[in-house]
Amino acid sequence: MIAADSAKPAATLREQTLWQRRSPLRFHSTDMTNFLFDLFSNLALLAMVLAACHLCNRLIPGASLNGSHIFAALASVALLLDAALTFLVFADSQNRYGQFSTSTAFFERGCAYLLAIIAAFTWRRVARGAKVGAGKALVVHTSPYSKSNLPM
Fold first, then answer.
1. Distance CA 38, CA 110 (A)
2. What count of other Cβ atoms lies within 10 Å of the Cβ of residue 53?
3. Whole-model pTM over 0.85
4. How far, in Å, CA of 121 to CA of 37, rounded?
5. Residue pair 91/103 in contact by the 8 Å Cβ criterion
6. Which whole number is the average pLDDT over 77-103?
């Protein structure tokens, strides 16, 4: 009887471990939410900087502001200030700002900054490629005698 009783918990333990192996890996939802919030807020700031630079380039005749470079500079300064806050200010008061002073929290925020900078340069490259492609106009040669061209 003792052997039968000890076999039953082993079977339930074996079923639990099999079930635990079948369950997918779970990410901590708070960390992912914070990362996504940081990323979306950085992308919203990128959109505002690009819109402001585009507006300035349209309104001021001699201006040639590059929004992606300006955003990369602002995001780099923000990352440096974030590092200073994380490791100098928040580190001194662990009981108040414990979740913000960890290196993993800084790593998540840093990744959000870097992904936004990569998105800025990708946007610039795509916009430049579209502008170069728009400059190539289709030309139809109308007459070999007059050597005239009809742009389309």
1. 9
2. 19
3. no
4. 21
5. no
6. 81
